[in-house]
Design brief:
This protein is mainly α. It is built from five helices and no strands.
Amino acid sequence: MNQPADDKQQALDERTAEERDRLQVVFGEALRKLRHSQDLTLEKLAERAELHTNYVGSVERGERNISLFNIWRLALALNLPATELMQALPAHRLREPEAP
């Protein structure tokens, strides 16, 4: 059986960290909008997703770099495909190779 790779965090350069932070905010805003469209409280969504209310709130505020597994759990709780949670994210821009 394949084992997942160890998640060893690498230090991000400033530009990458800013991009990550921006994506977290966009994702959180989209999550909140979808939750409100279903008239769900934060507590009810967290309960359905089997996540802590404080965790879901911090995701909505863009404070967390949420895992794929938790995106999947939130999508299930909203009765949506996970791709719908990701649709608000901007298209990835390819970086120019850095000069040696």
